[in-house]
Write a structure and sequence with these properties.
There is one protein chain. The chain starts with a helix and ends in an 8-residue tail after the last helix. Helix 10 packs antiparallel against helix 11. A hairpin with an 8-residue loop joins strand 4 and strand 5. A six-stranded mixed sheet has the order 6-5-4-1-7-8, sandwiched between helices. It has two domains: about 190 residues, Creatinase/prolidase N-terminal domain (Creatine Amidinohydrolase, Chain A, domain 1), CATH 3.40.350.10; about 270 residues, Creatinase/methionine aminopeptidase superfamily (Creatine Amidinohydrolase), CATH 3.90.230.10. Helix content is about 40%, strand content about 15%. By secondary structure, the chain is α+β, with helices and mostly antiparallel strands. It contains 15 helices and 20 strands. The structure holds manganese (II) ion. The site of manganese (II) ion has 5 residues, from loops.
Length: about 500
């Protein structure tokens, strides 16, 4: 009886892509570029480059990952792509440069977009070959039209050219984050410097904030894709929980998670899955996943898929044997309460730092009761609560966003308090009489709770009617987790 039902579910899932049509994505890309151009103004030119390919070893590359900003404005995930926006132009406001098709190269490494295909994908009408970019820039900066008939008197580029003449023109590039003084400049800064030396009348500006501000508020198209991305991540977490059991290796859980990503049409992970058992629950970005988990231990899993360039962020910590020990429950309850209090205040007008502060209050009270801190007025809690509770999510798991900007509908973020009773934390405290006293006082509680690391993380999108928890399908409370783990333990014959 279950089988037909399951196939109905699969059929329903396969309908999903039709909810998000190709045309809808292009319309959204056009709207994003229009908004970017509004911010840029008519006297500026924005140039965005694609991400480089990266060598894994010898002649094998890593899987290609497009630059988030370029993908945000073009939807093109091919290397050697450049987007130019010139909002002041009459018709050529958007210009794309793509690499040339090459049958032999395509025989080896796959299809290269034709100019027509690049237009279909991105909605950008004017497409040139990447090899033309140098001439294009040279022409524009010398106030020579490009791609117009010879001796044409078209005013196509007039606004930008006049701005160049009068010294008001701006070249907008992504110049952040800036490299350190002894680090190489990187291609964008080098380009900026070359332009500066050759072209007067042009101010070079950092467009980072323009893209940041746009990406911070998700479009309705992005909201749909992000929801789908998190649906996949939810299923992946459930699969991971089913694979966890005493005697299993961390990588078995990791494999179960990634299997769901790949078989659901996601590109893969949005960040490498963190699957840490026992003492490894205390390693924030643990990547090895080669330890065998033992009965009675906790497993911390922080994982989410990259689906169509949108990534959520979910963490669950659960007992591999199916039941929390009383000591594990003590810590778990604090983290859960902190998260729930944080969730209560996640509303428009609030800042992510307010939510973090709310979690800090709850954590301080809880730690004091367990004897892990002796004073709630200072920073003792930071010994065990070592990171912030909130960050934005989106194209990047720690997405761009202005943290001083109050929350508004369309913003997506996580709430992820965590407590890590890790070896060495008390010894690491700066030497002072106060810290020595604290360390001494906390020692018995530390011995009791040591090696317990717990983080609970959920992804949210703020909608017009309040926050929507996109990871709600993954068991989160002690009761939910225990009943799920027990229902799916290996001893259950119906598994
Ligand atoms: Mn996170």
């Amino acid at each position: 009886m279950l089988k037909p039902l399951f196939s109905v579910f699969l059929v329903l899932l396969s309908f999903f892509p039709r909810l998000v049509t190709a045309g809808e994505f292009q319309d959204d890309l056009k709207a994003r570029r229009a908004k970017a151009m509004e911010r840029l103004g008519p006297e500026s030119m924005l140039i965005l480059w694609s991400a480089p390919t990266r060598v894994y070893s010898r002649d094998v590359d890593y899987e290609y990952r497009q630059d988030s900003n370029l993908y945000y404005l073009t939807g093109i995930d091919q290397e050697d792509t450049t987007l130019v926006l010139m909002p002041g132009n009459l018709t050529r406001k958007e210009i794309l440069f793509v690499k040339e098709r090459n049958p032999l190269r395509e025989h080896w490494t796959g299809h290269i977009l034709s100019k027509e295909e690049a237009t279909t994908k991105s909605g950008v009408e004017k497409v040139h070959l990447a090899t033309e970019f140098e001439t294009f820039i040279h022409n524009i900066l010398s106030r020579q039209p490009y791609d117009l008939p010879p001796y044409s008197s078209s005013p196509e580029f007039d606004i930008f050219f006049k701005a160049l003449t009068s010294g008001r023109a701006r070249l907008e590039l992504i110049l952040s984050p800036k490299p350190g003084l002894s680090e190489p400049l990187g291609p964008t800064l080098e380009f900026a410097n070359r332009v500066k030396e050759r072209s007067a009348g042009l101010t070079i500006q950092d467009a980072t904030d323009i893209l940041r501000d746009l990406r911070q508020v998700k479009t309705s198209y992005e909201r749909k894709v992000l929801e789908r991305s998190l649906e996949i991540s939810n299923l992946a977490h459930l699969a991971g929980m089913k694979a966890a059991r005493p005697g299993a290796y961390e990588y078995e859980v990791k494999a179960a998670i990634e299997q769901v990503y790949k078989s659901s049409g996601a590109m893969g992970w949005g960040y490498p899955p963190i699957v840490g058992s026992g003492p490894n629950t205390n390693i924030l970005h643990y990547e090895k996943s080669n330890r065998r988990m033992e009965a009675g231990e906790l497993l911390l899993v922080d994982a989410a898929a990259n689906y169509e360039y949108l990534t959520g962020d979910i963490t669950r910590t659960y007992p591999v044997s199916g039941t929390f020990s009383p000591l594990q429950k003590d810590i778990y309850r604090i983290v859960l309460a902190a998260q729930e209090e944080g969730m209560k205040i996640a509303k428009p007008g609030v800042k992510l730092s307010d939510i973090h502060q709310k979690t800090v209050q709850v954590v301080k009270d809880g730690l004091l009761k367990l004897g892990l801190i002796s004073d709630t007025s200072g920073d003792q809690y930071r010994t065990w609560y070592t990171h912030g509770a909130c960050h934005f999510i989106g194209m990047d798991v720690h997405d761009v966003g202005d943290y001083d900007r109050p929350l508004e509908p369309g913003m997506a973020f996580v709430i992820e308090p965590g407590l890590y009773i890790r070896d060495g934390a008390l010894e690491d405290l700066a030497k002072s009489p106060e810290n020595d006293a604290f360390s001494q006082k906390a020692q018995p509680a530390f011995q009791k709770y040591k090696n317990i690391g717990i983080r609970i993380e959920d992804s949210f999108i703020l909608t017009e009617s309040g926050p929507k928890q996109l990871s709600a399908r993954v068991p989160r409370t002690i009761e939910e987790i225990e009943s799920f783990m027990q229902a799916h333990s290996r001893t259950n014959v119906n598994r």
